[in-house]
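Lay summary. Proteins are chains of building blocks that fold into shapes, and those shapes determine what they do. In this project we predict the shape from the chain. Here is one chain we studied, written as its sequence of building blocks.
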Amino acid sequence: MFEQILRNVRRQQPLIHCITNYITTNDCANIILACGASPTMAEAEQEAAEIAAVAGALDINIGNLNAMTVAAMHQAIAAANWHNVPVVLDPVGAGASTYRMNTLRDFFEKYRFAVVRGNVSELLAVGGAASNTKGVDAGAADAVTEENLDERVTFFKQLSAQLGAVVSVSGAVDIIASPQKAYLCRNGHPMMSRVTGTGCMLSALTAAYCGGNPEDILEAAAAATVAMGVAGDIAYRKTMEAGQGTGSFRVYLMDAISLMDAETLNGGMKLEIR
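And here is the predicted shape, written in a compact code that computers can read:
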């Protein structure tokens, strides 16, 4: 289903400019390389605009905000918007502090985003709904379940219209929504939440897929989420077969992304369209 999305990334090898948090910088760079794109992690305010202007996509992650990175983010996003470079925003910890929410409000007032991607608690907070965020983790009370799935899909379609961006929500059921259409993905394994940075890696992967497919943002975001979920399924199976733990799982996850092809993706995806 997403054959061309994957093919375009590996053929074009887009440059992906990431301003992300210190905790996951290396993982984000490696997941971008694994899918066939090329990362740059430039966060100096003095060069952020120049790098963003020539990138295939920009990944903005607010997981570890400080005054210097926020200034660089403003420079990079403004340049990306001016040059029609897709911007993926990961609102890590939205709702956890006033500083984060004020930063996000400023971003949304000033700039355009191609994709806003985070966990359900973060995106509920972005949409102004009550959320139960646990710092940078989603609260259990906010989880997408089969019982509230229709309600959540409607909410995130409306949020997509409000933001003018595809909304990509991670959870037990992933939702990737535009105002008219939503992909639901049931791939992935809970062990992914026990490895630091899988959400950050997914945002970087989403930016890479958008950079290779700037005319098909919804499908690119959906393909990235499905690829990460299928990779999680593969990594969990291999970890259990080897009798290993989360360290091995992290390596298997990266391996699965580097080896991902259309046959593996189509054979493993658990996808629904609404």
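What the prediction tells us: The longest helix spans residues 217-242.
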